[in-house]
Amino acid sequence: MRQLTLIVAFVSLCSWAAIAQTQSNKQAQERIEAYKIAFFTKKLQLTAAESKVFWPLYNEYEQQREQLRKQLKPDTRLELMSDDELKAHLYKQLDIEEQLVALRRAYFEQFMEVLPLRKVALIPQAEQQFKRQLLEELRRRRQQRQGVRDQSPHKSRFKRDR
Questions:
Q1: d(C-alpha 94, C-alpha 35), whole Å
Q2: Any idea what the Cα angle at residue 134 is, between residues 130 and 137, rounded to 5°?
Q3: Which residue ranges make up each domain of the chain?
């Protein structure tokens, strides 16, 4: 009976940890999305009226682009593929890249219907700058966490203290 209680407690703890991790990831995604909206709105100098029509369209574009990008990843490691599988994979990548260009062209046409041309021209630049800033922020936070760990006083169990 005690073992059953321990098993139930362990499973409950693991489930709680998984839920907490999922909620934490969801909150992080929401914060990133809010930062992205603020970043693009500032870079493109979007008015409230422009934002109202731009963001649903841009989000739709991003979802479709992400679906295509997921298809770029091979199901198996390249080293394990036969020559025929590699060839098929390469052609599949080229087809998907063509679809990505066609998707971008189609959505940029739609963006030009709701935004001035100059603002549409700034979208790729804003995307690159946003990604760069996001990566820099993640790198900075990782270094801060590592710095805190490195500075914490702890004894290594592998080194002999004298």
A1: 33
A2: 140
A3: 53-133
